[in-house]
Design goal:
Layout (H helix, E strand, L loop, with lengths): L12 E7 L3 H12 L4 E5 L6 H6 L7 E2 L3 H6 L5 H10 L2 H10 L4 E3 L4 E4 L5 H10 L3 E4 L2 E6 L2 E6 L2 E12 L16 H5 L5 E7 L3 E2 L13 E9 L2 E9 L3 E3 L1 H11 L5 E3 L6 H9 L7 H8 L3 H11 L6 H9 L1 E2 L13 E6 L16 E3 L13 H18 L4
Parallel strand pairs: 1-2, 1-9, 2-6, 9-18
Antiparallel strand pairs: 3-5, 4-5, 7-8, 8-9, 10-17, 11-14, 12-13, 12-15, 13-14, 15-16
Helix pairs in contact: 1-13, 4-13, 9-12
């Protein structure tokens, strides 16, 4: 990262401004600088990439090593829109990006790609050293002042007038890390179409009865989540507030939007076989022992009782419940706790180069855009790809 080098003039003029120093903003800044623009990055927090660093605490999942077509389909309704951007910075290119920063990667058994260091901090430090831009920390954007941008800074209020700029302010989750969605009304006031924010990749609230307390924190392994007639294998966790975990996240968008959720507690087992075994249960054998012998551990049995008590006497009905246990929930956990968000700047508000139609010279990237994807490397990949795309088009913009 360059030292203060006169990128910002005394009257607040700047050649290329990037607001937000997460993955999308840093990629946009690097792209702008490599295309000859003098770049200033303004970040509201005391350090760059705070959500990026949080994502890397349990192993930074950069991307997923899979065919491009399948990879892009993970973005659902936004797949066609995002395709050219991701094709230009596909999973292979993301892996090369990390390697170029001195961070070798490896691919796990599920295709997820991680730095060998299993942390975000070494990659972020190397990246910041490489970017030829000036970084101002604790510069919190607070809206527009006519055609200028107003910032609260350690030295008081500053207003900037950029020739071109990229906004990369994130969505509306994890506000303490910098993504609070406060920018949405400022852009809406300028005539920009904004889709309401919704939580994505989140758990669901369940009002547990007291008998579930011993199972808080217990994993649900070897299960499948059933939504809209489709079954997806995964895992979940019983938390004090509800159901969370990777398997839940894969179906969260559909459930959030109104689809029912059920759990197959014994995927791979045939319902007829389970019914047959239950019907042959010896009279002296307790139901708990019979369910245990089928393969239901303590947590799964507790969940079965929680959502289906009193259990049916019919072996066929009980087998059907084991294979498709309806989940009674009270909606998503709070949006600020979601891994990511849906909603934001709509495609209709943007040119193909991610410039706001109502605000020439203003480009947008990352989670500010109205797209969502499951966890598994898709989130960071799309932030990097849209950041580069916006940076390339912003670099060619002159008022």
């Amino acid at each position: 990262m360059a030292d203060e080098n006169g990128v910002l003039s005394a009257d607040g003029k700047v050649d290329a401004l990037v607001v937000g120093a997460g993955p999308a903003g840093l990629m946009a800044a690097e792209t702008l600088a490599r295309n000859g623009r003098k770049v200033l990055i303004c970040e509201g927090k005391p350090s760059a990439g705070r959500k990026f660093l949080m994502a890397g605490k349990s192993g930074l999942n950069l991307t997923k090593d899979e065919d491009l077509g399948r990879f892009v389909r993970a973005y659902g309704e936004a797949a066609d829109w995002l395709y050219p951007m991701i094709a230009k910075l596909d999973p292979v290119e993301v892996m090369a990006f990390a390697e170029d920063l001195g961070q070798p990667v490896f691919t796990g058994s599920t295709g997820r790609v991680f730095p060998r260091a299993m942390k975000a901090s070494p990659l972020l430090r190397a990246w910041l050293r490489r970017i030829d831009a000036e970084l101002r920390l604790r510069w919190q954007w607070t809206g527009f002042d006519g055609d200028r941008l107003r910032f609260e800074t350690p030295d008081g209020v500053q207003t900037l007038y950029p020739e071109t700029m990229v906004l990369a302010l994130g969505g509306a989750s994890w506000a303490r890390l910098g993504s609070d969605g406060s920018w949405a009304p400022w852009l809406a006031d300028k005539g920009v179409d904004i889709a309401p924010f919704k939580p994505a990749n989140m758990g669901f609230v369940v009002s547990w009865s007291a008998h579930m307390e011993p199972f808080f924190g217990a994993p649900l392994k070897n299960i499948a989540l059933i939504v809209n007639g489709k079954s997806v294998k995964g895992e979940a966790v019983i938390s004090a507030r509800g159901l969370e975990g990777g398997g839940i996240y894969t179906v969260a968008a559909a459930v959030r939007d109104g689809a029912g959720l059920a759990i197959d507690l014994l995927p791979g087992r045939d319902v007829a076989e389970l019914a047959r075994r239950l019907s042959r249960r010896p009279k002296k054998q307790t139901l708990t022992k019979a369910l245990t012998k089928l393969g239901l551990d303590d947590a799964k049995r507790a969940l079965l009782q929680e959502f289906a008590r009193p259990l049916p006497d019919s072996a066929a009905d009980l087998a059907a419940l084991i294979k498709s246990l309806p989940v009674k929930h009270n909606g998503p956990l709070p949006i600020d706790e979601a891994i990511s968000t849906a909603g934001g700047v709509m495609q209709s508000a943007l040119t193909s180069g991610l410039m706001l139609r109502e605000m020439p010279g203003v480009f947008v990237a990352g989670e500010m855009l109205d797209w969502e994807a499951p966890t598994g490397g898709y989130l960071i990949s799309a932030c990097l790809a849209t950041g580069r795309w916006a940076g390339e088009h912003a670099a060619r913009y002159w008022p």
